[in-house]
Amino acid sequence: MKPIVIGNWKMNITSQEAKVYLGTFLRKLEVLKQAEVTLCPAGPVIPTVAQMLEGTGVAWGSQNAHWEERGAFTGEVSMEILQDLGCRLVLCGHSERRKWFKESDFEISRKVEQALAHNIVPVLCVGETFDERKAQKHEVVVIEQVRKGTERLSNIPALALIVAYEPVWAIGTGQAIEPEQAWEMARLIRSVLREVLPSGAESVPIIYGGSVNEINVASFVDGDAISGVLVGGTSLDPEKFHQLIAQLI
Ligand code: PEP
Predict the structure, then answer these.
(1) Shortest-distance Cα residue to atom 8 of ligand 1
(2) Is the N end or the C end of the chain the one with fewer CB atoms within 10 Å?
(3) pLDDT attached to residue 157
(4) Ligand 1 touching residue 232 (CB < 6 A)
(5) How do residues 197-222 score in pLDDT, each as one tens digit?
(6) SS (H, E, C) the chain
(7) CB 52, CB 26: distance < 8 Å
(8) Atom 6 (ligand 1) nearest CA
(9) Which atom of ligand 1 is closest in space to residue 212's alpha carbon?
(10) How many CB atoms within 10 Å of residue 143?
(11) Residues carrying an active site annotation
């Protein structure tokens, strides 16, 4: 299986900047084709990125979406709209959304369900805060997030789900955790998936996110416990992000 690499641009990179970025990033396509690469720009930038990525093998996705089909939800974007834009995946419950927008596990589980209803792969993001890790509560917190995030999934093929383990204290801090710590948590997540999705648990890719860069990336992806990465900061630089991907193939 190809390594999974997702770039989360967050609230950075305008459409104009994306054109310049992709001019550099797409230069060595044969490297990118050996991984399963997806870029997640800010919503209004998706059409520009989609147009430039069409036919390259690099996919595009969204950082978020609403769980309802349609309706009076000013400022929101639906999964149907993302599907129309050709999004391959959508991040569900990124820690920044849990923190700043108070997203609950219940809402996140509905997003996961709604994404699948529109043939978009939900990337369920889970991870403990620094205080929770210090208090030795990281396992309990992550078990709960996985259980609740997948609670509406019983009849849905697990193949179409990705779980991203992202310890909040490693996101955007430049301080990645030790690979052993990430593998340990990935194994824990796998055991919860076996419990909640007995028929498809083995095929759900588990990826790591949190200060991954072109230097440390290879130490996380072992092709066993962890099959890819979710990258924020390093994905903003097309050359470094390209180098990061090259380390995995
Ligand atoms: C993220 O936003 O999911 C992330 C992992 O960010 P960073 O790589 O900057 O830590």
Answers:
(1) 232
(2) N
(3) 64
(4) yes
(5) 878 888 899 999 999 999 999 999 98
(6) CCCEEEEECCCCCCHHHHHHHHHHHHHHHHHHCCCEEEEECCHHHHHHHHHHHCCCCCEEEECCCCCCCCCCCCCCCCHHHHHHCCCCEEEECCHHHHHHCCCCHHHHHHHHHHHHHCCCEEEEEECCCHHHHHCCCHHHHHHHHHHHHCCCCCCCCHHHCEEEECCHHHCCCCCCCCHHHHHHHHHHHHHHHHHHCCCCHHHCCEEEECCCCCCCHHHHCCCCCCCEEEECHHHHCHHHHHHHHHCCC
(7) yes
(8) 232
(9) 8
(10) 16
(11) 94, 166
pLDDT of 32 over the 70 cut: yes
Fold of 4-71+81-246: TIM Barrel (3.20.20)
Only one residue has tokens 């309706």, namely 71
* Model pTM above 0.90: yes
Q: Which two tokens stand for residue 164?
A: 């991203």
Hunting for tokens 């990281």 — which residue is that? 138
